[in-house]
Structure formats: C-alpha cells, structure tokens
Amino acid sequence: MVAAALGTPRKKTIAAGPTGEDEPAAAKPKRAPRKAKVKALPSELDRLQAIIVASLEDDKAEDVVAMDLAGKAMFCDRMVIASGLADRQISAMAQHLAEKLHEAGIRRVPIEGANGSDWVLIDAGDIVIHLFKPEARAMYGLERMWGKDLDEAG
Predict the structure, then answer these.
(1) How many domains does the chain have?
(2) Which of 5, 95, 113, 118: CA 20 to 30 A from 140?
(3) d(CA 82, CA 67)
(4) Any bridge partners for residue 27, and if so which?
(5) Domain interval for residue 101
(6) CA quadruple 55, 57, 60, 66: dihedral sign
(7) Which residues, in sequence order, are CB contacts of 143 under 8 Å at separation 6+?
(8) Which has more pLDDT, 154 or 77?
C-alpha cells in the first residue's frame, strides 16, 4: 500500500525517487507554456481612455487628468484621475464607468473603495482610474508622483 501523499508537488517528486537519464523524453511530463499577458494596442487604449473620460465628464467629474505611463509603470500604461464632491457622486461615477467598460468589452472591472470612501480605484487592465474627493486627491498627489516630474528625475 502506498503512503499518503506528502503534500507539495516538490515533495511528491522527491518521494518518487530519481529519474534515470536513460528515460525517454516522452516519459517526462511537459509543462504547458505560460500565456503572456496581452497588452492592449495604443489605438485600443485611446478608445478605452476616451470612453472613460467621456463617462466621467457625463457624471460631472472635476479636474479629469489622463496620464501616459507607458514605460514608467509596470502595472498599467495609462492612468486617469478625477475628483467628485461627494461619496454618492464618486460611487455613481465608478458604477457608470464599470458599466460602460463592460459594454466596451472589458469583462471584469474590479472596483476598490466604492462603499463611501475618499478614494475609489477602478482597474480597467492597462488603464487604472482613481476617483478622489478633492482633499484626498491633494493629500495623495498622484499627479505629482506620476506626472512630468517623474520624467525629469529619470
């Protein structure tokens, strides 16, 4: 009778013993190649950014700023920052934006902080959207952090 599984795949491999060099290559399990993350093309990013900015402007967002972060950040290629005056307005902007992005073909649009927060983050893949109350926006200063000053420092 075989002992119970030892746990991790590495432990199971060690317990199975060494594989001989004379083993045929076909007997060794092959790993499926990893799928590379598909980056959106610039024209697709422009289209999505236009949808995002239009949605925010329709919802009366203030100080809408779009920044190109290609080559500066690993987590996104574009960032859109906007302000709203009240929790309810910011939540509505986030919800409307998620609906419009879903209609545009983005299936999963995670939203963080939409339940009455000073800062709501929407992850649209290669574009990240930050919705702030004006005080929180000034405090975090994302425009200063990721704006033109970053180019001058590098």
Answers:
(1) 1
(2) 95
(3) 12
(4) none
(5) 42-153
(6) positive
(7) 65, 67, 81
(8) 77
